[in-house]
């Protein structure tokens, strides 16, 4: 995807994550979804390792940044299995949301770090998955990107994730149009989201 198409895909997903087209780099709050704090433009969370990945990378770039004091607590959360209620624990993250917002507002390096980690963890895998099933349009790629942001691809969610959606959708037919395949893909995604045992989706 060219930079303009990537930006458009990010803005589309940002609407679902933050409610508007203003990139939510400074967003940080508890949503009550058992993932701790949800932060940044992509919805990185303290309970699923990606917020940890952002701060870990940022501290490599800005070693003296005050948000680095949360790294030990975030690293400790990574030792629990995905789905373990302990991953929701924020008792050792006092002031984290305020610090995330402050760092975003005062250092553009933190914003760039969010983008770089988001591209590495979500955009690039989404593009690889899209290519693997013959999706070439920017709209199709944007849908794969949104799917991977919302549901993951590393089995953080056992019953709803991109590999499972692809498996249930089935392969793209030899002469099947991309529009037809994406309709089946989105129908499967919607059905899984409706039946998921929780209120997150």
Automatic annotation (TrEMBL):
GO terms for biological process: carbohydrate metabolic process. GO terms for cellular component: extracellular region. GO terms for molecular function: chitosanase activity. It comes from the Eukaryota. It holds the Pfam family Glyco_hydro_46. InterPro entries: Glyco_hydro_46, Glyco_hydro_46_N, Lysozyme-like_dom_sf. Signal peptide: none annotated. CDD domains: chitosanase_GH46. This is Lysozyme-like protein. It comes from Rhizopus microsporus var. microsporus.
């Amino acid at each position: 995807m060219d930079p303009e198409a990537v930006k458009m895909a990010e803005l589309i997903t940002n609407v679902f994550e933050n409610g508007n087209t203003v990139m939510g780099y400074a967003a940080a709050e508890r949503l009550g979804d058992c993932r701790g704090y949800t932060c940044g433009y992509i919805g990185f969370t303290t309970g699923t390792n990606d917020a940890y990945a952002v701060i870990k990378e940022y501290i490599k770039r800005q070693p003296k940044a005050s948000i680095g004091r949360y790294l030990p607590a975030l690293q400790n959360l990574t030792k629990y299995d995905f789905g373990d209620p302990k991953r929701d624990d924020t008792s050792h993250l006092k002031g984290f949301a305020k610090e995330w917002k402050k760092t975003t507002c005062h250092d553009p390096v933190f914003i760039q770090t969010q983008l770089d980690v988001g591209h590495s963890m979500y955009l690039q895998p989404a593009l690889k998955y899209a290519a693997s099933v013959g999706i070439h349009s920017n709209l199709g790629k944007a849908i794969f990107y949104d799917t991977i942001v919302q549901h993951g691809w590393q089995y953080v969610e056992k019953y709803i994730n991109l590999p499972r959606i692809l498996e249930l959708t089935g392969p793209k037919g030899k002469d099947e149009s991309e529009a037809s395949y994406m309709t089946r893909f989105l129908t499967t995604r919607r059905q899984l989201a409706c039946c998921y045992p929780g209120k997150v989706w």
